[in-house]
UniProtKB/TrEMBL annotation:
Domain Ig-like: 113-194, 305-395, 400-482
Assigned keywords, A-Z: Membrane, Signal, Transmembrane, Transmembrane helix
Transmembrane segments: 490-513
Protein's gene: LOC116219217
Pfam family, one: Ig_2
Signal peptide, first to last residue: 1-20
Taxonomic superkingdom: Eukaryota
Name used for this protein in its record: B-cell receptor CD22-like isoform X1
PANTHER family for the chain: B-CELL RECEPTOR CD22-RELATED, VASCULAR CELL ADHESION MOLECULE 1
């Protein structure tokens, strides 16, 4: 039993000895890092059997709770330290290291060890020195210890104090030369300077602005937030603001400047607030504004450098400068400086609020742009709608649209008549060239140019016409217009010619009858009784009527309006030779009167 117990003890001892050779060691369980700087988490590792061919295969750092893993590069054995750059609050936490080898494939770590990382920034603290009444101590304070070897840099009024390298410095509050604005930094990280503290407090003067630059919209109002400090045993007697650009070396109170009349309002007090309100800003109001105050003790202080104010108007900038339909176009509500308070921009189209889906920040997009997007556009800032920009016309160029050809006069065209073809279109820029194209079944040619084309209709001009409208962008063709004249039917022409011939023959026959009647009257006058004086009337009626022949019937059926009717009447009076004619009831009567009447049947 004793021998068996010894074996168990020996085995446990050997196992423990081997296990002790697998190790992760942290030289410090805590680390402190400066915000924005770098920090190193110190670590070493060890493993046995290196002489037997065992090798380090890899390791990693991991963070509690978050589980964030940082790979560890194969550095020189046995260093496993971790360096973290650009520290931030996110790096705060507890870190562990683990590794494995070729023979020990599971993770090897220190189950009881860890490194707790804290993040700190710098602040200057002022404390009175109890032992010495006229002294005050400034401390470059941190929330955790950066180490005893850390060196510091002190600044007074922005200038480094070369002789000061520790975290502490003493000031004499009774020495006017000691007063100033102090800050500190860690050597090597001078850019990570602490906030400025005025010390000693008893004799500290200063003006603090909430912002060192402001971009104001023309016509709007802006507040310059400001606080000021002065020795506690002083009382403020006078406060005012001035524009350094205008005042130069003479501190001119803005309230007394005629250019600022009704444009300024001091909303501060004579204790610690010095806020100034500028109203209805103009471009001439741009400049560097500073606060100046005077105490009852006769001391004055000017808060220089001050606040730079830029006054800007809104302007719509179009990209590209020349726009063609189908392109991507961007409208930008541009300013000469970046407006404060993250403004929201509003767009107007023809002076009406334009709600468009493709807006982002101060940009309005058209992708693609269309001809109907041509309008006047302006922009404004939400809350300042009355201060909108000058409207800019978005001129979208496009090739001719809605090209149409028309013919006048409208209706049936007769050979030899005059017609006019007119071409109309919608284009931007306007059409600079109209071309008229003529085509038949056998040929195609250009007939002319210009917005309109006039000609007399002949067989040479009969066919199809269309116009081509062209501007700087391109061209489009119109619809086709037919120009053909109506040819009269041969039968109708024959009928008309026959009627005219018949009328001529009828007139000739009438003349012959009248001549014979006159001759008969002369020979019969001696034989007629003197008492016989009555007057005989002779009428002749001749009518041209259509025959029943097939030719005439076809003419009538083709166009009844072309058939003509003629009626001729003549009346001759007889009297005895030497006898005086009797008076007619209706007046004197000619020897022979001829009546004729021609009527168109279609008018009946």
């Amino acid at each position: 039993m004793v021998f068996k117990g010894m074996n168990v003890f020996l085995a446990q001892f050997l196992l423990t000895a081997v296990q002790c050779q697998w190790s992760v060691t942290y030289s410090s369980m805590r680390a402190c890092g400066l915000k924005g700087a770098s920090v190193v988490l110190p670590c070493t590792y060890d493993y046995p059997w290196k002489s037997r061919g065992d090798t380090y295969q890899g390791g990693e750092w991991y963070k509690d709770q978050s589980g964030i893993v940082r790979e560890h590069s194969k550095s020189d054995y046995p260093d496993c330290s971790l360096k973290i750059d650009k520290l931030s609050e996110d790096h705060f936490g507890v870190y562990h290291f683990r590794f494995y080898t070729a023979l020990h494939v599971s993770w090897i770590t220190n189950k009881t060890g860890q490194v707790a990382l804290s993040i700190t920034d710098l602040r200057v603290k002022e404390c009175a020195v109890v032992e010495k009444q006229n002294q005050t101590e400034l401390t470059c304070s941190t929330s955790c210890s950066l180490g005893s070897n850390t060196q510091y840099v002190w600044y007074k009024n922005g200038q480094p104090l070369q002789e000061m390298t520790t975290a502490y410095m003493l000031l004499y509050s009774t020495r006017p030369s000691e007063e100033g604005n102090y800050s500190c930094a860690v050597r090597g990280y001078e850019a990570r300077r602490s906030p400025v503290v005025c010390a000693p407090r008893k004799q500290c003067w200063g003006v603090t602005y909430s912002s060192n630059s402001i971009c104001a919209l023309m016509g709007s109002s802006v507040d310059i937030s400001c606080t000021y400090k002065y020795p506690r045993d002083h009382r403020v007697s006078k406060t005012f603001w001035f524009n350094k650009r205008k005042s130069r070396r003479l501190w001119v109170d803005l309230s007394l400047d005629k250019d600022y009349q009704n444009h300024t309002e001091y909303v501060g007090n004579k204790e610690n607030s010095c806020t100034l309100r500028l109203k209805d800003m103009r471009e001439s109001h741009s400049g560097e504004y500073a606060f100046r105050f005077t105490t009852q003790q006769g001391d004055t202080y000017s808060g220089l450098p001050g606040v730079n104010i830029s006054v800007t108007a809104l302007q719509v900038v179009v990209t590209p400068a020349v726009i063609t339909e189908g392109e991507r176009v961007t409208l930008t509500c541009s300013t000469s400086c970046t407006l404060s308070d993250k403004p929201t921009f509003i767009w107007y189209k023809n002076s009406v609020i334009y709600k468009h889906a493709n807006t982002s920040g101060k940009n309005l997009y058209f992708n693609p742009v269309r001809g109907h997007d041509s309008s006047n556009y302006s922009c404004a800032v939400k809350g300042h709608k009355s201060l909108s920009s000058t409207a800019v016309f978005l001129n979208v160029r496009y090739l001719p649209k809605s090209v149409s050809a028309s013919l006048s006069p409208f209706g049936e065209i007769v050979e030899g008549s005059s017609v006019t073809l007119t071409c109309s279109s919608d284009a931007n820029p306007p059409v600079h060239n109209y071309t008229w194209h003529f085509s038949t079944t056998t040929l195609s040619m250009v007939k002319g140019t210009g917005e309109s084309l006039s000609f007399n209709v002949t067989p040479v001009y009969s066919g199809l016409y269309h116009c081509e409208a062209r501007n700087e962008i391109g061209s489009q063709n119109s619809n086709q217009v037919s120009v053909f004249f109506e040819v009269e039917h041969a039968v109708a022409l024959t009928v008309k010619a026959g009627i005219i011939l018949f009328m001529i023959l009828a007139m000739l026959a009438l003349g012959i009858v009248c001549a014979r009647t006159w001759k008969a009257k002369s020979t019969a006058g001696a034989q007629v009784d003197n008492t016989q004086s009555d007057l005989s009337a002779v009428y002749s009626s001749i009518s041209a009527r259509p025959t029943t022949s097939g030719l005439t019937q076809r003419a009538e059926s083709h166009d009844q309006g072309d058939v003509q009717y003629a009626s001729v009447h003549f009346r001759c009076a007889y009297r005895q030779e030497g006898q005086k004619p009797e008076a007619s009831a209706t007046g004197p009567e000619e020897d022979c009167i001829v009546y004729s009447n021609v009527r168109n049947r279609s008018q009946l």
